[in-house]
Every structure is written in C-alpha cells, then in structure tokens.
C-alpha cells in the first residue's frame, strides 16, 4: 500500500456545486424577446415557486375553451395555458419579462443569463427582491388586471400583451410559434 508523502493532504478536493443554467429551465420565445417558455420538465417547479410568492392569480377556464392561469410578477407575469384541440399557441408555462425571469433564476438558484437582447439593464437581486416585496403590498385588483393582460391564445395576443406590459412592439407573425 502506497502512503502519501508526509505533510500532504489526502482529502478529496470537491468542487462547489454547479448551479443549473437558466437555459435548462427557460428558452427564448420566437414570438418576442420579452417572453420565455418554461421547459415542460421544469414547469411544476416554476409553478411551485410562483405559488409560494403570495401574489394573486387570475384564471379563466370555460367549457370548450383554453384554460388560463396567470400570476403578475414584477412588471410582467407568469402564465400557464392548457389547450384543447389544435392550439394556435402551444400549451405550457411562459414568463413575460426580463425582470421576472431574473427573479425566478435567483429563487430557483439558476445561473442567470448575461444581458439579453431587448433588456434595458441587468438589475441586481436586491432590487428585484425589494420590488417583489412592494408588489406583495400593492392593490390586488391592479395585479389581477396585469395578470389577465398576459393571458393569450395565439401569438398575436402574446405580442399585444408584450406591448401592453412593456410598451414595446415585437416582430414576427407566425401563429404557431412558441
């Protein structure tokens, strides 16, 4: 048996835990640089984080129509869409806005992206958490109106929501784009 030389440390050096990349959970939508699609395998995790924030949720679910759930988050929203039949917009979870995306990256311990196209500046985490705390104290009806704005059945409605929430127009016309 070979012994380590005297004075050397034989303990294994472990590297710090690698955080998942933001792109393991989110991907950019082809409809708008302000919309991010949540990977199906991470949707439940995102839903749980959002549910734990203590923000109101708007929903719409009627017979023979798509089902929507939306939670306002900072200046954007997190939406869930369940489609019936042939959807013009695929079902799933989406995040509207760069700031909500960055807050979720922090809350989910994801490595955040570098500055993204269309993102005016990269806020620090303390700023996002402060804004979240202020949002928790804000008027519930105004927050529900913000959430309902993000509910969409097709790419045209997504673009209209981006314009209403962020004041920017998006390009693209494909109704089947995510």
Adjacency order of strands in the biggest sheet: 2-3-7-6-5-4
Low-confidence stretches: 173-177
Oligomer: single chain
Number of domains: 1
* Helix and strand sequence: EEEHEEEEHEHHH
Largest sheet: 6 strands, antiparallel
Percent helix among the residues?
25-40%
Number of helices: 5
Backbone CA Rg: 20 Å
Strand content: 15-25%
- Look at the helices and sheets and give the structural class: alpha+beta
**Whole-Å distance between the termini?**
60 Å
Based on Cα principal axes, name the global outline.
globular
The strand count comes to 8
Describe this structure in words.
The chain has helices at residues 43-51, 98-107, 125-137, 140-149, 155-166, and strands spanning 20-21, 26-28, 35-38, 58-61, 67-73, 76-82, 92-96, 110-111. Strand 4 and strand 5 (67-73) form a beta hairpin. The protein has one domain (22-112, 125-164). Helices cover 30% and strands 19% of the residues. The chain is globular. With 178 residues, it is an alpha+beta fold. The strands form 2 sheets. A 6-stranded antiparallel beta sheet has the order 2-3-7-6-5-4, with helices on both faces. Strands 1-8 form a two-stranded parallel ribbon.
């Amino acid at each position: 048996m070979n012994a380590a030389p005297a004075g050397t440390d034989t303990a294994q050096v472990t590297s710090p835990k690698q955080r998942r990349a933001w792109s393991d959970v989110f991907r950019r939508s082809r409809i708008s640089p302000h919309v991010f699609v949540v990977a199906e395998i991470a949707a439940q995790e995102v839903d749980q984080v959002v549910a734990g924030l203590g923000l109101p949720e708007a929903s719409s679910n009627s017979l023979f129509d798509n089902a929507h759930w939306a939670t306002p988050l900072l200046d954007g929203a997190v939406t869930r869409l369940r489609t019936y039949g042939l959807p013009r917009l695929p079902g799933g979870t989406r995040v509207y806005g760069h700031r909500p995306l960055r807050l979720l990256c922090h809350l989910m311990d994801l490595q955040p992206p570098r500055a993204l196209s269309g993102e005016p500046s990269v806020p620090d985490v303390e700023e996002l958490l402060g804004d979240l705390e202020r949002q928790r104290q804000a008027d519930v009806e105004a927050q529900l109106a913000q959430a309902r704005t993000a509910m969409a059945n097709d790419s045209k409605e997504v673009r209209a929501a981006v314009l209403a929430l962020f004041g920017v127009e998006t390009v693209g016309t494909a109704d089947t784009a995510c």
